[in-house]
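sanity check this record:

:::
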Amino acid sequence: MLNSFKPTWMVRSIYQITPQQLKQNKIKAVLTDLDNTLIAWNNPEATEETLEWIERMKEHGIKVIIISNNKAKRVSKVATILDLEFIPNARKPFQKGFKEAQEIYDLTKKDLLMVGDQIITDIKGANNAGIRSVLVKPILDSDAWNTRFNRMIELRIMNYLIKKNPDMKWRDSLDEPIEH
């Protein structure tokens, strides 16, 4: 049952994911969580690194779509700054937001990759939707109040998964997959 929280890959940062790695895995679009994955949860401004990563993806024809449980007003503000499409109120880990992404952008599950910093929402949601996933380390060590409880539960789930799957290790790229 807890295997439904297991990511396809564990990469230290979203910025380590390259267009070449995505193309090698036949991925046409990255669905990315917003807070503590793409930007710091407490700062709507993007870093230079974020802007460069997004630009690299666009130059290689890879869509980047924010898929967030946040309200439209919050996600829209950041998406406008980053010039990205977005799906707010995604209700992760349920399939609502993932299905919307597929329908709106006319993509198949195999075309998509979900990148997020939480196994309870991002990874479980991607697995529920049949989409490959990347767990990244949170940008900040701190979280919004509503995420702190999830982190406690996630720690227990991750400890269990790592014990049962010693191949689950932080890596520097998608070129080093976790075997299922």
Q: What stands out?
A: The chain is about 40% helix and 15% strand. The mean pLDDT is 89. The CA atoms of residues 22 and 170 lie 18 Å apart.
